Amino acid sequence: MKLAFEKYPFTSILGWSISRHEVFDKCKRRYYYTYYSKYVQDVPGYKLKMLRDLTSVPLEIGNVIHDVIEAFLRRLQKSDSDIDEDRFYQFARSKAAALFKGKTFMETYYKYTDDIDFDRAMERIEKGLTNFIKSPVYSWIFMKAVTNRTNWMIEPPGMGETRLNGLKAYSKMDFLFPVGDEVHILDWKSGKKDAAKHGVQLIGYAAAANSNFNISCKTIFPRIIYLLPEFDEMSVEVSEKELQNFFDTVKAQTEQMYSFCSDVEKNIPLGMEKFQKSPSPSMCRFCNYQELCFPDGLCEKETDF
User: Fold this and answer.
1) d(CA 22, CA 191)
2) Cβ of 235: how many Cβ atoms within 10 Å?
3) Sorting pLDDT into bands at 50, 70 and 90, what band is 289?
4) What confidence tens digit (pLDDT) does each residue in 186-230 have?
5) Domains and CATH numbers, the chain
6) 268 neighbors 262 (Cβ within 8 angstroms)
7) 3-state secondary structure (DSSP) of residue 300
8) Which of these, 152, 2, 182, 131, lies nearest to 80 by C-alpha position?
């Protein structure tokens, strides 16, 4: 089975994704700042970009784990010899040091902490990677997936653009590969398990594979691989009914986002005043743009809505 993603011509119309609709659903103002920053008139562009690029320690822990596993899989495509664990962890530390050095962290920018504890973050990274190399999925990749390693898709290039029942959408997969007549999709997670959200994500991966490769959903097997705090897996059974329900959801959510556009085809938004804030202590504290809504900073009084 030969797998290849279709390339689509550029269109301005917005594309659905789980992450985009999640931001839209939680706070319309954050959605505006994230996806329509060029229309913001009262904040300099460089400031919006700086805020958009803020990261967090948990996010960068996940990024390092993803990058190291990606490098491991690309190595495995060339050689199936056992890894040198010392060099494996040394590579992870150097990768982490480079990533952490070049980022501005929300935790320090908003003064939640004075400094980033790199060694503590590195402990989490090493634990996640240890959970990976000691896991049954690691052994399974060596025994099963490696048989067709020339046809692996590891972190496919681009944004994962696809079409779901004719609608523009994005579905970025970590690792997709055939085993016999089956197509397996693995997604690495380093955060808490969210069965509802991640279940939809897995159906989305299956829908994208079904649309791109024109293969039966019965032969698509998507799995979430949790690496922190402990190793765990989550899979879903993909059926025609599940796919249709997913397509219906994508259509409804896309139309919700369309309704905030003054020109749908050109993806031009309504005025920013239409994108209301949805303030809450839990969301605002972890929002990149919180200083735009609370110039004097968050405090108990301001977030007691």
Assistant:
1) 17
2) 13
3) very high
4) 999 999 999 999 999 999 999 999 888 888 889 999 999 999 999
5) 1-43+150-293 (3.90.320), 54-134 (no CATH)
6) yes
7) coil
8) 152
